[in-house]
């Protein structure tokens, strides 16, 4: 596709006018409903987050629907639905299809996703307002000829759908591989046969709690390597040799540290999976850890322990020792009673060799399914960048000064 040459051919010299979205679309808030108020049925209840929360006996939106989450952490999140839904803490956009294709408007808004997220107002819970979209500027090619305009919009949608479908196919394949990997990992670490002994974490090692530091303590360079509990959910995998953060050097005496070979885990989280999520620290020096982290010190292969802590059976046992309050919290005294397998427990050298063998196998699977620099994750990242490039190219219509202002 030749950048501007293609766009010039597509537009073929036609005029592009910027109009207010509210003049060409119905923008309407959803209806409040709680899970307790729902009736059994098959209509997804869509609100202030990705996907749907539960089901209801009736729907209040049909056909193509653009949804924008209204409040909370996902305020401004844009999604597109083709099935009937029940819309709750969000608002919908239904363009007038005599002038605008719904999917075309969706792609235009999705291109501005970050800007729309930032529209959230208020010092507390973020909110976006339906009224803010009444005057939202939308480019309409060839407005004097609606038939030609819809043809141009349709071609743009067709191209972007093609890229989106390619990415979706790769993502589906990756999801299938991840399930296969998870199954194989869980089977490999179940040790249904062989010389193995299951020991509690309290028998295997000890837990050292971190010390508090805040964002104000961070420095860009020259500080103490540090791991914040929130980063363990989002930025680290099974292990790491480097940190993403550093804190002020003058805090050295007030901090607590994980040593090389320790497994660092969180003690709070939004989900059971997040609480107790582990990362093996394989760096060359000690690293400061937040007070919502524990360093698990032991004499085993740290990556072996980290892999064990990912298994479904471990998560099930861990769940027994999580206090489900406003913030899910790990009860460390109970967590110490969760068991992990020790192969060849009476032969330390043979045990460590077997742990290393299993880790080498799982590392290969982990690389193929999770590494952003290798395999399918890398291919998906490249496809996504390609999609975003052409999306920006196809949807970046020139704006008059009045619109830019």
From TrEMBL:
Domain Type I restriction modification DNA specificity, chain residue ranges per copy: 15-174, 196-381
Organism, scientific name: Planctopirus hydrillae
Entry keyword set: DNA-binding, Endonuclease, Hydrolase, Nuclease, Restriction system
Biological processes annotated in GO: DNA restriction-modification system
Record's keyword annotation contains Nuclease: yes
Keyword DNA damage part of the UniProt annotation: no
Protein name (database record): Restriction endonuclease subunit M
GO MF annotations in UniProt: DNA binding; endonuclease activity
Top-rank lineage group of the source organism: Bacteria
């Amino acid at each position: 596709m030749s950048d501007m040459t293609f766009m010039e051919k597509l537009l073929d010299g036609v005029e592009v006018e910027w109009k207010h979205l509210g003049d060409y679309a119905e923008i309407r808030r959803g209806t409040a409903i709680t899970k307790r108020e729902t009736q059994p049925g098959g209509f997804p209840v869509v609100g202030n987050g990705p996907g749907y929360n539960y089901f209801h006996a009736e729907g209040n939106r049909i056909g193509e629907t653009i949804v924008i989450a209204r409040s909370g952490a996902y305020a401004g999140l844009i999604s597109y639905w083709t099935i009937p839904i029940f819309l709750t803490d969000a608002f919908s956009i239904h363009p007038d299809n005599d002038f605008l294709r719904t999917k075309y408007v969706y792609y235009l808004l999705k291109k501005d996703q970050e800007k729309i997220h930032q529209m959230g107002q208020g010092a507390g819970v973020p909110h976006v307002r339906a009224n803010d979209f009444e005057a939202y500027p939308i480019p309409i090619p060839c407005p004097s000829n609606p038939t030609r305009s819809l043809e141009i919009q349709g071609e743009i949608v067709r191209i972007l759908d093609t890229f989106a479908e390619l990415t979706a196919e790769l993502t589906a394949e990756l999801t299938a591989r991840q399930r296969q990997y998870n199954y194989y990992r869980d089977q490999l670490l179940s040790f249904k046969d062989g010389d193995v002994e299951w020991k509690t974490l309290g028998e295997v090692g000890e837990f050292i709690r971190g010390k508090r530091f805040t964002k104000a303590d961070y420095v860009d360079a020259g500080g103490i390597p540090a791991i914040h509990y929130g980063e363990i959910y989002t930025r680290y995998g099974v292990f790491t040799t480097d940190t993403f953060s550093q804190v002020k050097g003058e805090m050295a005496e007030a901090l607590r540290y994980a040593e090389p070979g320790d497994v660092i885990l969180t003690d709070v989280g939004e989900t059971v999976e997040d609480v107790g999520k582990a990362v093996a620290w394989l760096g060359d020096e000690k690293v400061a850890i937040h007070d919502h982290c524990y360093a698990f010190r032991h004499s085993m292969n740290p990556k072996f322990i980290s892999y064990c802590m990912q298994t479904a059976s471990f998560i099930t046992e861990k769940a027994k020792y999580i206090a489900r309050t406003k913030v899910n919290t790990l009860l460390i005294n109970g967590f110490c009673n969760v068991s992990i397998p020790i192969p060849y427990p009476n032969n330390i050298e043979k045990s460590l060799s077997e742990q290393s063998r299993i880790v080498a196998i799982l590392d290969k699977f982990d690389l193929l399914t999770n590494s952003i620099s290798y395999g399918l994750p890398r291919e998906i990242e490249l496809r996504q960048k390609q999609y975003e490039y052409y999306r920006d190219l196809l949807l970046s219509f020139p704006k008059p000064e009045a619109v830019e202002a």
